[in-house]
Design goal:
Radius of gyration: 20 Å
CATH architecture of the largest domain: Alpha-Beta Barrel
Strand content: 15-25%
Oligomer: single chain
Number of domains: 2
Number of strands: 11
CATH topology of the largest domain: N-terminal domain of MutM-like DNA repair proteins
Order of helices and strands: HEEHEEEEEEEHHHHHEE
CATH superfamily of the largest domain: MutM-like, N-terminal
Helix content: 25-40%
CATH class of the largest domain: Alpha Beta
Shape: globular
Number of helices: 7
Strand order of the largest sheet: 2-9-5-4-3
Bound molecules: zinc ion
């Protein structure tokens, strides 16, 4: 599933190509990929709008279309947002096509269909429940270790589960939760509220490091993730624990353990992580 670094890579790549373009036509091949508003209203409303900005919040792609309106794209498990020539072949599982005024198309493709498209003002989308309320951005300079400490304090849930909660911090999923906890030398099954300030400072730094390194490496293509040009990322080559259950820990050599936490496969080192 694309997480913060993968979504950030797509957003940064698309921004210079999309800002200033106008959406001249919209085709929905699988209308239920639009969760708000009704698909017909979505098509009518989006046609003719000019793209003013391209941003990200957590794992959500936010395309600003003027008058406070946003086109929101969540990639779900297997979503891909690609910018292509209108003449290029339409890949299987392409659910939405936006024609731009420069002859290119922004296409949304999603074999597993867990992703979604939304259109509306932020308030409208929050009110409709289609856009959840998100916690702070872990790589935002104003998000400090003290804020993370406050958010973890008194929580009895396992650390891993708390990091995956998008209302606590936005953008972290299974890959970067495991990577950050390993870097911070913290067990994923520890109660989040049991961490000292010192441990939280380590976790805060590790979270940033894992996410920023992954952004520099254009994300992890551990499954179906592709960037806006259809290319794979590079971070999967450098992951410390994710996907490495049973393989030796790079630090101590002990085989990495695997448990299920918050319904997700979780890999960690029983010797290095406490
Ligand atoms: Zn180890």
């Amino acid at each position: 599933m694309p997480e913060l670094p993968e979504v950030e890579t797509i957003v940064a790549d698309l921004r210079p190509h999309l800002v200033g373009r106008t959406i001249v036509r919209c085709e929905l091949r699988f209308p239920s990929i639009v969760r708000h508003p009704e698909p017909e209203v979505f098509i009518d409303s989006i046609t003719g709008l000019r793209i003013e900005a391209v941003g990200r919040r957590g794992k959500f792609i936010l395309i600003a279309l003027g008058a406070g309106r946003l086109l929101v794209v969540h990639l779900g498990m297997s979503g891909q947002l690609r910018l292509v020539d209108a003449a290029s072949e339409i890949a299987k599982h392409t659910h939405a096509i936006l024609d731009l005024d420069d002859g290119r198309q922004l296409r949304y493709r999603d074999p597993r269909r867990f992703g979604r498209l939304l259109l509306g003002t932020e308030d409208e989308l929050l009110l409709s429940g289609t856009l959840p309320k998100l916690g702070p951005e872990p790589i935002d300079p104003t998000f400090d270790a003290e804020e993370l400490f406050k958010r973890l304090r008194r929580r009895r849930a396992p650390l891993k589960a708390v990091l995956l909660d998008q209302a606590i911090v936005a953008g972290v999923g299974n890959i970067y939760a495991d990577e950050s906890l390993h870097r911070a030398r913290l067990r994923p099954d520890r109660a989040a509220g049991s961490l000292s300030r010192k441990s939280v400072r380590r976790l805060h730094a590790s979270l940033r490091d894992s996410l920023e390194v992954a952004i520099r490496n254009r994300g992890s293509s551990v499954d179906t993730y592709r960037d806006a040009w259809g290319e794979v990322g590079n971070q999967q080559e450098s992951l410390l624990v994710y996907g490495r259950a049973g393989e030796p820990c790079f630090t101590c050599g002990r085989p990495l353990a695997v448990v299920r936490l918050a319904g997700r496969t979780t890999v960690f080192c029983t010797r290095c992580q406490r």
